[in-house]
Amino acid sequence: MTATLPLLPTTIVGSLPQPDWLIDRGKLNEISPPRLRMRDLWRIEERWLEDAQDDATRLGIEAQERMGLDVLTDGEMRRESYANRFSNALDGLDIDHPGVAPSRTGRPNPVPRVVGPISRARPVQVRDVEFLRARTGRPIKMTVPGPFTMAHQLQDEHYHDVEALALALATAVNGEVLDLEAAGADVVQIDEPLLQAWPDEARAYAIRAIDRALQGAKGATALHTCFGYGHIVADRPRAYPFLEELAASSVQQLSIEAAQLNLDLELLRRLPDKTIMLGVIDIVDRTVETPQIVAGRVRRALLVVPPARLILATDCGMKYLSREVAYAKLAALVDGTAIVRGELQGDRQTAEINRP
């Protein structure tokens, strides 16, 4: 890592809210996370779009530093969704004549068609890492969609075997992971929300795909899994159907949402060798948590996970929150964690500063 992390480090899962001047947030809120690139979501002309995305990314980096987060992301400001920036850049896909695949809610979504062997001709997000690395001395994380999830966001007309497709995608992800590390990412996180949508299928081959995607990684690796964005997926279970199976994977950090679900954290005892990146900020409820509420969630986690294996984060992504609410929640995350950090370190002054 570029800098030493404190006890109980803080971070976000990946996304921050994009500014209204950059993207049509009203339209974004009305659709499922896009599987195809959607140029009409952006408010900026094509010739100025990259500059505008850079400006929004810079503001997001500065906000994370100002709030006091320990591990920073680029806020995913350049993406219409967590997945399509990477997936649509792969060879073997037809994105001009889309097919259809169901979302986790069962609704049909337009998706790329797999018409040939999947490959990654060039790095996709290396510039994103370089941009972030050049603007902060803090540890940084970059996210990329995972192979199991991407395999369910495509219409396969080439492999005719979802496991073969997932393993081909894993090879492409692996090349990206290694390039992101080389470009300066301290943590590379693969996003695998759909493990929870198709758990039986995940048991058949997801671990093989995940391990292939992370093969040869020398830095910290993370995997995020969840039940989808709360404003889209209303029926959210209270337990993970596919989680303890990840104990057998090579990934080092497991990122899960727990705040909105009021998750029973006893299940984390079944993951004794993994660092847990725990969501303690609810991204469905627009009410901003107090630092004391966050501290209570952290203390509850410490009953089952030792502090050396705990990272505090937001549930899922913050993409659909207003910036005002998102930044207030990040401040609560940092302040609430500081309360518990002070208690653990015997620093009464730190612990008391954040109490009412």
What's a concise summary of this model?
This protein is of the alpha/beta class. It has a single domain (25-347), classed as TIM Barrel (Alpha-Beta Barrel), CATH 3.20.20.
How would you portray this structure in words?
The chain is α/β, with parallel strands linked by helices and about 350 residues long. It contains ten helices and nine strands. The strands form two sheets. The protein has a six-stranded parallel sheet with strand order 3-5-6-7-8-9. A three-stranded mixed sheet has the order 1-2-4. It is globular, with a radius of gyration of 19 Å.
Extract low-pLDDT stretches.
348-356
Mean pLDDT reading: 93
Order of helices and strands: HHHEEHEHEHEHEEEHEHH
Number of strands: 9
**N- to C-terminal separation?**
35 Å
Give the overall shape.
globular
Write the layout of secondary structure elements.
Blueprint: H1 25-30, H2 46-67, H3 84-87, E1 91-102, E2 108-119, H4 126-133, E3 141-145, H5 147-151, E4 155-156, H6 162-183, E5 187-191, H7 199-214, E6 220-225, E7 253-257, E8 275-279, H8 291-302, E9 310-313, H9 323-344, H10 348-353
Parallel strand pairs: 2-4, 3-5, 5-6, 6-7, 7-8, 8-9
Antiparallel strand pairs: 1-2
Helix pairs in contact: 4-6, 6-7, 8-9
Main attributes?
356 residues; alpha/beta; TIM Barrel; 6-stranded parallel β-sheet; 3-stranded mixed β-sheet; 10 helices; globular; disordered C terminus
